[in-house]
Amino acid sequence: MIRIAVVDDEKAMRDMVCKCIKQTMKEDEKESIEILEYTSGESFLEQVKNGELFDILFTDIQMSEMDGMELGKKIREAHSKMYIVFITSYAEYAVESYMIEAYQYILKQDMEYRLPDVARRLIDKISLDSRQYRMLKINEGTVKLYYKDIIYIYKAKGGKYVTFVAGNGEYRERTTLHQVYKELGSKAFVMVERGYIVNMKHIHKLSGDTIYLENGYEVKISRAKLAAVKKEINLYWGK
After folding, report:
1. Rounded mean pLDDT, 167-185
2. Which of 28, 80, 84, 98 is most exposed, with minimal Cβ within 10 Å?
3. Mean pLDDT of 91-98
């Protein structure tokens, strides 16, 4: 189930956003996509704090109480994976929305032709992520680990196990790192040196030969691979 939140204090705008989203939905997706409307940032934030999970947030920036930028900052602090799309009448908010790591911002005058395309791309992306996973055989049984949750993968020199470091913990599997890299088959992963594979979706910063990842993890790039890895990361970010 893909859950989409639409936050705006004007009913006409909520109706327009919902119409644009539904316009792009395929017939067989209607049962697997849920759209929920909220009249304020506060009411949506309350639901999130109560444990409600959402994949995408469409929010107006100009609202009478908590504005969309403030809402976006609070959501980003608690849920780094939620896709945020800002809707605004003013282009000058583009820079600030970038700082909050918004997926996109849409000018209201462009909404009818831009929003359906943005919604379609996000739905396709989330659907693809839900189909990409690895079944890990561990001591306790089998774990289904989604690619999107893997931060990095490593194997200690001379070790028999590959360790998958994810947002919810670490998992070990008896295999080789090269076999894992081959089986992943995803352009989001890059081998930064003989013992480490990094998921580029989780990179916060690249400085010198060091990759800074979520949850405070750091991984060094080997000197031999430095130029090639930097090029691959820049190409991925560019996309």
Report:
1. 90
2. 28
3. 56
> End-to-end alpha-carbon separation of the chain, Å?
26
State the Cα–Cα distance between residues 169 and 107, nearest whole angstrom: 40
Kindly give the residue spans of alpha helices, DSSP state H, lying in the chain.
11-24, 41-49, 68-78, 94-99, 111-131, 177-184, 226-238
What is the DSSP secondary structure assignment for residue 175, as one 8-state letter? Answer: S
* 136 contacts 149 by C-beta, under 8 angstroms: no
**3-class DSSP state of 132:** coil
- Residue-wise pLDDT tens digits, 206-215: 999 999 998 8
Lowest mean pLDDT among 96-100, 139-143, 207-211: 96-100
pLDDT band at 31 (very low <50, low <70, confident <90, very high): confident
Euclidean distance between CA atoms 102 and 117, whole angstroms: 16
Confidence (pTM) = 0.71
Nearest partner of 199 among 124, 149, 157, judged by Cα: 149
- Residue 229 CA to residue 198 CA, distance in Å, equals 10
102 touches 93 (CB < 8 A): no
> What values do phi and psi take at 86, rounded to 5?
-90, 140
Phi, psi values for residue 167, rounded to 5°: -65, -25
Alpha-carbon distance of 143 to 168, in angstroms, equals 12
Residues 6+ apart with CB under 8 A from 135: 142, 143, 144, 145
